[in-house]
Amino acid sequence: MSSPSALFEELLESSLNSDAPPKKISISSYKTTSSYTTAGAEYPFHPGNPYVPPPMPPQIPDVFRSYPVLRDTYQTKSQKDQDQTVSEVLPHITKRGNALPALKREKHIAFLESGLDEEQLPDYMVSLDASRPWIVYWCLTGLSLLGVDISRYRNKVISTFTPIQNATGGFGGGHGQMSHLAGTYAAVLSLASVGGSALSLVNRISMLKWLHSIKNPNGSFKVCIGGETDVRGIYCALTVISLLRLPTDNGLLKKTTEYLISCQTYEGGFAATPGGNEAHGGYTFCALAALAILYPPEKLKELIDMDALLRWMSARQYGPEGGLSGRTNKLVDGCYSTWIGGCWPLLEAALGCETGSLWNREGLVRYIMAATQNDKGGLRDKPSKNSDFYHTNYVLLGLSGTQHRHWYEADEETKEWEEGLPPMAPFGWKVEETTPGVTGWETWPDSRWGDSKTDRVEAAHPVFNIKHEMVEEARNWAESFL
Asked: Which of 91, 311, 441, 476 lies at a C-alpha separation of 20 to 30 Å from 132?
């Protein structure tokens, strides 16, 4: 493998020992570990002009390589934590010649596959016994985004979920556990992801009865019998209702819209419940996605305070890290690549943004690629944290969001929800590949500086967070029930 210094020596020897014209060598004709080579570029050298500079790495924008100009001089614990996080992240996102590392695809695949092999799961995972459907969903979705055909897991997924589906409806988190909306959501998405006849496992009749039993008069849903109530439960319930095409008569969704919009806070984001709770990225995504299941995105402008939401959302991306935070005065975290990053397609469609972007895709790309990848496989919150299945999935979903543009096309079916009918609005989303416009690497993720290797991942549905074709297959499967 040649290096720039070896190339220099070759050119010098050629020029000194030959009467031939100065030799030109294409940089693309040799391999280098340096990240600043450019396909097709030529670097001429002649001893008469020894000051021709070597190729240099693309300039990193100032916002991603230095502390903010305006900083609070009053030192609080949160300010010190923020400074510590910046100090932790900066060396990764400003590393000379490697500020945008390649996607460690094969290592991430091996990491996620280990989560679907009970013999490879570490002992500490016993603490997540009530999260079995989540582990399956996280690993399957991450693998599918990385291009793995997960249909080979179909039989295993069906056998895993068969004993945790309760006769009273819904799925528990594990064997012998009561049904819970979070686990049911993850189970239904997992079954939809592996395709084929997997969704036929779901008992739609008992599922509908169970959903009615946990519906509250104020429009919300309890996450389980006797459990708590928040917008997360509504989003999970609406996902199950729409993918299974369940009827919504007898008041199943009565006052649900009113409850959702009442959770928007004075900050602009959404809280878990109405009445003074703090705006949070996860609850904001759940609220917006739930509304996007009930209505086409342009309806959002009529339902919520869009200006306040945009203001709060814009404040969730930090420099120099480029990553996203979930709350005011909180640190960046890789998982908010989905919970905050996933809100932007919904908002851009609501506002009719056909080109460009309302947020900085480049910043999130730099944070994900440089700061969240574990060299051993998997993705993480930030460099000081370990990778796990949860963060691996939601960071990859966020990476997918930077590489794709979504828009909405309404038709006779994908219209506003009507009483008694299953919601159809989420089936009107379209997607196309895009490039995030990373400074110096404008062709990323489709090529890496003269190499044919790609860092592109698959597109995910902006509401359901599984691949578009999986959503469409589930929609076609459910047609027979209408």
From this structure: 476
